[in-house]
Amino acid sequence: MAAKVNNVIEHSLLDKTYRALADSTRRGMLVTLRDGPARITDMAAPLRSAEEWIAEQVSFWSLRADALAARLERRNPPVDRS
């Protein structure tokens, strides 16, 4: 019985390990750390580029959403209900 419980625990730990390694961000951290210790700021550097990408996407889609809203308003002007 104890061997079966240990086997289940080992598989659970392996599942968690492989799940963690499946994450590209975590793999990138391991690549950085394989050469030795690293500062948190060095490890966060790739996240800054992600923030830049997100900012670009927000700008891109905000402009399109504003253009769509303006076009829809021209097609269907608001009704004055006063």
Number of strands: 0
Are there runs of 5+ residues with pLDDT below 50, and where?
none
Which structural class matches the secondary elements? mainly alpha
Kindly state the percentage of residues in helix. over 70%
Characterize the main sheet: none
What multimeric state do the chains show?
single chain
Large-scale geometry: elongated
Proportion of residues in β-strands:
under 5%
Rg of Cα set:
25 Å
Report on the structure:
With 82 residues, this protein is an all-alpha fold. The protein folds into 2 domains: 1-38; 39-76. The chain has 3 helices and no strands. It starts with a helix and ends in a 7-residue tail after the last helix.
List keywords for this structure.
single chain, 82 residues, mainly alpha, 3 helices
